[in-house]
């Protein structure tokens, strides 16, 4: 918050020049102080070392619909590797065609988020992976039933053994999540035009995109959207200056308040990462806005208290499109054969 | 039918020896007269020549959920390339979580079927591909809306142009189906143990599997399950000798009769191809039987009027497992970015 306020203040003195800030820093230098390029290989994960076996296991589990009660829904359903790790839905559709409460964040580059989910209730991807499997509106399964499923297929049992070779009983719900985390950490989108810019190629951005970057930094967007992922680093009230329309910010969803129960967290949500944002409409936790340009304008008024004019909003939108990186090419894994012990699909919804 | 009756009759004289039939043909020679190995490359399709562009387009469309009204369901949903081209459901689940009327046949090797669907109402894969897109219980879309979707994404428009270079307006519903057909024709599973046997490696089958093959031919299964796909070549009444339980053969589904309106076609269904059958439970058009062994016994009594004993059913089941071929390794395509013109998901169900 302080950073944003400071930036907004300083922006007044350095709005229009585009390539100099306080007469000292170039836009590239300034950008490098806020942002980092997406790495080209997966980061190491504390307490969860990667091995080829664990990566293969996680890859299979990400695509495994039999982790859901219905045998119809996998991580891939809402985090589609053909659709930039998201699902093009307002809010995701899960078990029984139920609509979930919030828009599905992309799994791409998610390893660089400070925490996961719109309210940050999972500290990392391993914690995150356990949520949707159990959520009644998503995969509607239980850890116990997942273990029955995994233990029913010898190929999985073998792969868990190889992935966690020191453990006596390697087939666990936590290890399922650890393997998925290892796979998800490889879903990176490096070499976006903006990454090339950050690495020193100032011609990677057009004049309009460069202008948009300048606006993005000096009008204050960077206050919430910085770091490798340009977001995903903290929680901010949606409507800090001006509350958006009730449809965009549904009253029933108080965001991080539901996690912390702290008054200041009402309607606070994780600032979403903006990597590949042009590929992942619709926007906001409610998924109610499909236009990126409109989303930029809403953010201007709601978060910064400024009415972006047409040119400014277009330039920022053009800049945001330079955050589209190389999409990972993912093989669809061949999943293990069912056995007579594998639980059969349950399509009914409890209580319905 | 005549073939089956003849075979059943002759079987009496050649039941137990396994490797000689009427004292003349070996089991290998006999097998070669009924079956062919799965080829290692896609066959040419009459009137639909394959090109790399068309294959890529079809590959993308197979995985494209935006062909459905909800943007949630693609060919891949019910014909999962991780699950041997099927979905492990009794009957497939589509738009609005509606359960469809019949079990999803695999797309693998489907190009070798005489016709498509359980009732053969589509003469080829191109015709087939147009069905589920429009079925209200599946993708619930219309050809007109599909064209709006495809035309909204420049990457698709470009790829249709390259795939159908001589056509003035290449983005058509039929061309969508042609491209999907080209992709599906590549979904082959060669080199199953039984293919190796057919190619001359008699040691590719164990003693029990060889015995099962002998039973399969000489007890009459081959009457309906022959050719490359060991089935998929004709229509046969389910329960030709003994009507199975109502749950397995639901009264409401009269099968091919619904297509031909001919009395003899009541409860007639296409004999399903048996390639990879061990990977694609549950069985029959109703999907009501999960055990392959049980399915073999039901077929024995319902179609051949014989009570297979435990040893016979086990041997035939063991043989059927030798029909599991090398599964194709398919890349998940990166799909084109949405635009403001792309229709948004419609989750509601008409009339509900």
Automatic annotation (TrEMBL), chains A, B:
Binds 2 heme groups. GO terms for molecular function: cytochrome-c peroxidase activity; electron transfer activity; heme binding; metal ion binding. Its main location: periplasm. Binds 2 heme groups per subunit. It comes from the Bacteria. It is found in: Periplasm. Coiled coil: none annotated. Residues 332-352 are annotated as: Disordered. Its cofactor is heme. Transmembrane segments: none annotated. PROSITE patterns: CYTC. GO terms for cellular component: periplasmic space. Residues 207-324 form the Cytochrome c domain. Heme c 2 binds at residues 221, 224-225, 299. Gene3D superfamilies: Cytochrome c-like domain. Pfam families: CCP_MauG, Cytochrom_C. Heme c 1 binds at residues 75, 78-79, 95. Keywords: Electron transport, Heme, Iron, Metal-binding, Oxidoreductase, Periplasm, Peroxidase, Signal, Transport. This is Cytochrome-c peroxidase. It comes from Trichloromonas acetexigens.
